[in-house]
Design goal:
Rossmann fold, 27% helix, globular, 12 strands, single chain, binds ligand PMT
Length: 221
Amino acid sequence: ECEKKLQNKVVMITAGPTVEAIDPVRYISNHSSGKMGYALARAAQLEGAEVRLVSGPVSLRDPHGVTTVRVTSAKQMFDYVKSNIADVDVFIGCAAVADYTPVEVASQKIKKNDDEMTLKLKRNPDILAWVGEQQATRFVVGFAAESQSLKEFALKKLQKKKLDLICANDISQQGLGFNSDNNQLLLLYRDGQEKLLDIATKDALAADIMQEIGEHLKQRS
Ligand code: PMT
C-alpha cells in the first residue's frame, strides 16, 4: 500500500519565471512564484524519485533531497535541460518561461528621454517543445496557464509540443494559478483521457500528479 511510485526514476522539473535582462537594472519577467514547480519537486522526491529541479529566480527554499539548480534566463534554463536530460524518465515543464527576450542587452543603463522608446524582442527557445521532439521513451508533461478557452488552448499545446500529459490551469479564477497557494488543474492526456483535480493546495495537487504519472509509467512497462 505504501509502495513508492517513482522509485528508481529520474524526474526533471522546470519551475518559476525566467528573467530576461534589458540592461544592468531592468528586465522582462512574469508573476510565477515557483510554488507549483517546487511542490512537484517535493512530491516526486517523496515518491522515491531522483529529482532535478531547474528554477528561475524565486524566494523559495531548495526542497530537501532535491538537486536544485538556479538559473536566470530562458537560455540558461534550456542549457541546463539539454546538458542533463539524457537519463531523465519524466520531464515536467512547470516554469513560466518568458516567450521573448531583448535582441540586445545594453551593457550600460539605458538613459531615458522624452521620446517613445521601442524595445526589440526575439523569441526564446521553447524548452518543453524541444524535449517533446526528442525520440525517447520519456514521459513528458507540460503546464498551460490560460485566461480563456482553457481546454482548447491546452489541447493545442499538448499536440504541438508532443506531450503525454498537460496540466491546464485557469488563471482567470481568483486565488488560483500564479503566486497563490491553491490551484485547480485539468489533466489532459495524449490518449484523450481527462481528469479534473479540483481546487486544493499546490502540495496536494502535486501529490496527485505524481500518483497519476506513476500509474501511467506502470501501464507502459
Ligand atoms: O509558479 P507559481 O506561482 O506557483 O504558478 C504556477 C504556474 C501558473 C506558473 C504553473 O502552474 C503554470 O501554469 N506554468 C506554465 C505557465 C505557462 O503559461 O506556460 P506556457 O503556456 O507559456 O507554456 C506551456 C508549456 O511550455 C509550459 O509547460 C512551459 O513550461 C513550457 N514552455 C513555454 C515556453 C518556453 N519558451 N519554454 C517552455 O518550456
